[in-house]
Amino acid sequence: MASFSSLSLLFVYISLFLSYSYAEDATISYDFVVSYITASPLGVPQQVIAINGKFPGPVINVTTNNNVKVNVKNKLDEDLLMTWDGVQQRRASWQDGVLGTNCPIPPKWNWTYNFQVKDQIGSFFYFPSLNFQRASGGFGGIIINNREVIAIPFSTPDEDVPVMIGDWYTSNHTALRRTLNGGKDLGMPDGVLINGKGPYRYNDTLVPDGIDYETIDVHPGRTYRFRVSNVGISTSLNFRIQNHNLLLAETEGSYTVQQNYTSLDIHVGQTYSFLVTMDQNASTDYYIVASARFVNESVWRRVTGVGILRYSNSKGKASGPLPEPPQDQFDKTFSMNQARSIRWNVSASGARPNPQGSFKYGSINVTDVYVLRNKPPVTIDGKRRTTLNGISFVNPHTPIRLADWYKVKNVYTADFPNGPITGPPKMETKIINGTFRGFMEVIFQNNDTKMQSYHMDGYAFFVVGMDYGEWTNNSRGTYNKWDGIARSTTQVFPGAWTAVLISLDNVGIWNIRAENLDTWYLGQETYVKVVNPEPTNKTELPIPDNVLFCGALSKRQKPQDVSSATSVMRHESKVFLTLLLMMCAFISILQ
């Protein structure tokens, strides 16, 4: 019989093996069942997209450098992809969840995303990227915490409070899609939701009875980190909490210079985190408000989300008028100046111990310049479309990254124009050919009458300037070259421009798009191709074992061979069998 010391040696050996296999970076796993449920967020029963039966979906809560596995089961009646807004997918555009990199997950199938939140911290969200589905839900928050060895630039809050705000229609995404396909505008939304719920009945005329509203319970004297994402369709929202200051601390993975705001404009696709201290006397509950901006507010009064902040010692219900939004109807510079006031905290450490400001972006030479001009929708071949530089993007049947890997020809062209084309607009599959380790300047020029916001996957770009009018070379003289905020989504005011700088160090195919869903759906997007001329796994991971095939490569797809749960189980089975064989070998030796 084996001695105690021999058995101890066995367990030590197994522990060492396990730590060698898993300890480098922890793996956090989630199962997402994506399905329809019936809900009535605005008092009208409608079909919404839920995850694990919940709307919004669960929060993904991980730590810098964790490996994340999300096994997605598609129980919708149409194709599905999930994208992780702001997660940079370092070396792994295969996991990005947009049509340029991934084939869709068919109905009744499942697929496992497997990515690392490498060198990132902060607040983000996920959502379904196809077929206008985000308009029906399917979204949820993402929190990436600092590693314990990296100090955060403020006292640790008592609690995280994820808040999803967004405009909402009582028609589902398929009906809204039909409206857009028919050449019409969506019109005014039916309301604004806060965490999937309608407004508190602060006004008996504007808000019907019986609507479920969001209540956030707090304790006096504590400080909470509110992580607020605008997951809506096309409406910029002003966020405020009655009688409470919002101390801005972070946005989309960057710590900011800490400043107090009584309210902040949050545009579609943007996420901010605020430190909110419960320093009031709790004579009543307090309103939480998300109201529409840059619209006729007298007409849009019902498009207002209202929740309740309730102290544990609250003495009564909230009542009376809502806290006022900014009174800037005749001052178009107020919101832009607010946006300019958001600065990078250059002395704080982010995901790494070195200060954020040690990357001196303002001293790097620009290698590529693109002026991306947005115009009001146009008609191309009888269809209402949106464009950038006169190009309305057409998603190919074969994803761009997959086409490159298997050398499929005639899927796209890498000649997206640096500026607006002359002649009539076109529907084409043109992408930007980026320079690996280059430094790209992108100017978003919004010549539409509506607020737009733009996002880039795979990167955080530096927002260095914005102003009204037409951008010119002389506009560079106004750039902030020291502490412009690094983020993945920026607003572009109507009749104005926003300039960003991007360090192209992440190999892959990366989507650059309008975050306003209607604008995006009608063609306002492209991709940036970043290729290392020397192929190596150090700059891009190989194609995943569980990759889906479609388009010109559809014959490679095996029925139901799409579950990476299968590949994950295969990997875990190998580990288990290895351990079992080791144990048997040790036991036989010890006997």
Automatic annotation (TrEMBL):
Residues 34-148, 159-314, 398-533 form the Plastocyanin-like domain. Its cofactor is Cu cation. Residues 1-23 form the signal peptide. GO terms for molecular function: copper ion binding; oxidoreductase activity. It comes from the Eukaryota. GO terms for cellular component: plasma membrane; side of membrane. PANTHER family: MONOCOPPER OXIDASE-LIKE PROTEIN SKU5, MULTI-COPPER OXIDASE. This is Monocopper oxidase-like protein SKU5.
